[in-house]
Design goal:
Layout lengths: L1 H4 L8 E5 L3 H12 L1 H18 L6 H24 L5 H13 L6 E3 L2 E3 L6 H4 L4 H11 L3 E5 L3 H8 L4 E5 L25 H9 L4 E7 L2 H7 L5 E8 L4 H4 L6 E8 H8 L8 E3 L1
Parallel strand pairs: 1-4, 1-9, 5-6, 5-9
Antiparallel strand pairs: 2-3, 6-8, 7-8
Helix pairs in contact: 2-3, 2-5, 3-5, 3-7, 4-5
């Protein structure tokens, strides 16, 4: 979300990036403040990863070796998380592992990260340093604050008439008339979707809100005439969907119409603050 809107932000704009998950939030901090150490450690881990399967030419054997290494490092990450030891080491493991997976859903339960293993050797072998450098470059362009709080705490603290707020809450089931939770819970089994929508509609500034196609969400947001939405079809990030064996899901992106006219159609719109 931050990457998508930064072209309309003036250099130096205040940007608040919030994640309720400590591991993810710490990664933002390290990309911002400890980038070179993060890169150096990731490169060291990449070498260790390559040496772990050195000499193996069989594709299946190499994938098994990659996954063995993946399991070992995920266990190390989970041990640190369980001890509450968030820092540069958790950041290295987290960005390394999440980029080696096949884009499957990350899950956080009780402070522990579950990252599914990948089935694509090309992804295993791709470096993640370029992502750190690219994201870090954009962080340098703005006045960025990293937070790790509940969304209501962040909005109460920062949101105002000049803000563009981007919300990417837990997703509901597609094509349902109820706000049923999807399989991915991120450690929150009963996320209050209605409360989140009501809170969002009470914001002072502009907003963009992501979720799946759900008739109850449409009903709630349609109570305000200045809110619209667009549909976006996308593949669920797994091998079955990418291979066409599963249908694409439909994401809805709700937005205040001022955002449509000024952000989507007019690059002159420059909010004074971004809250994501």
């Amino acid at each position: 979300d931050f990457m998508n809107v930064n072209p309309v932000l003036k250099q130096g704009t205040q940007v608040i990036l919030n994640s309720i998950n400590e591991t993810n939030s710490q990664l933002f901090v390290d990309i911002k403040d400890n980038r070179q150490e993060l890169i150096d450690r990731v490169l060291t881990l990449e070498v260790e990863f390559t040496n772990y399967s050195k000499g193996i030419t069989d594709k299946k054997q190499k994938q098994d070796r990659y996954q063995e290494f993946f399991f070992e490092k995920r266990e190390e990450l989970n041990r640190l998380e369980g001890l509450g030891m968030y820092g540069i080491k958790t950041s290295v493991l987290f960005i390394f592992l999440s980029n080696k997976s096949y884009g499957g859903n990350l899950e956080w339960t009780n402070g522990i990260t579950y990252i599914p293993t990948g089935k694509d050797n090309n992804k295993y072998e791709k470096s993640v340093v370029s992502k750190i450098e690219y994201f870090g470059y954009w962080l340098d362009q703005f006045n960025v604050l990293i937070e790790c709080e509940d969304y209501t705490t962040i909005l109460d603290k920062y949101e105002n008439e000049s803000s563009l707020t981007i919300l990417d809450p837990l997703y509901v089931e597609e094509n349902e008339s109820e706000l049923l939770q999807t399989r991915v819970t991120y450690g929150e089994d009963n996320f209050p979707h209605r409360e989140c929508v009501d809170y969002t509609m009470g914001l002072k500034g502009q907003f963009i809100y992501h979720n799946y196609n759900n008739s109850k969400l449409i009903e709630l947001f349609s109570k305000r005439s200045d809110i619209g939405f667009v549909q976006h079809k996308k593949s669920i990030q797994n091998t079955e969907s990418v291979n066409g064996k599963k249908p694409k899901c439909v994401e809805l992106i709700f937005f205040t119409k001022q955002v449509e006219s000024k952000v989507i159609n007019n690059n002159d719109y420059q909010p004074l603050q971004l809250v994501s």
